[in-house]
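hey m, so remember when u said the C-alpha cells were messed up on ur end? i reran from scratch. heres the input so u can diff it against urs
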Amino acid sequence: MSDPLSPQEAERAFWRHLKSSSTGMLGLDRPGEHLQPMTAFREEETGSIWFFTRDDTDLARAVAMGDADAIFAFTSKDQDLWASIHGRLTLQNDPERIRRWWNPVVAAWYPDGQDDPHLALLRLDGGDGRVWLSAKGPIRFGLEVLKANVTGELPDTGGRADVRLD
C-alpha cells in the first residue's frame, strides 16, 4: 500500500490541481438534487471557491432562500486527484472579484457584460472534504492492477486524506 497522505499534503495538492484544472460539479447537498458543471475560481487564502452564476438559475434561487449546504466534486485534468468538498454556499455580488475573474468564457452568459442584472457569484466556504491523490499515471496504474492480479495483493493506487478547507 502507499504511504499515508497527510491532510496538509492533500489540501495543498487540491489547491494546486484546482488552479490548473478548474471545472468541477457543484450542487446542493440534499436528496433529489443534482450536481452541475461549474468553473471554480479558487481563493486558497480564504479557503473559499467562487463560481459565476445567473441569479435566475435554480441553484442561485435555492441559495438565496437560505438552503445552501453544498458539495463540490472535482477531478483534475490529469486524473491524479479527486476531491469531494462540502461547504456552505452564499450568493454574492462582489464587483472586485467579478473584474478579477472576468474572461470571454464567463462573458458568454451575460449579454450586458459585468453590469448584467442577472450576474451573481456563488461563494463556497469549504468545510469537510476528502481528497484522493495518485501521481502514478496510467502506465503505473496498469502495472499496479497487473501486479495485483498476479500476486493477489491490493494495488497501490495512491492515498487519501480528509481535509478541512477553512
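this time it looks ok to me. The chain has a mean pLDDT of 89. if urs says something different then somethings off w ur setup not the seq
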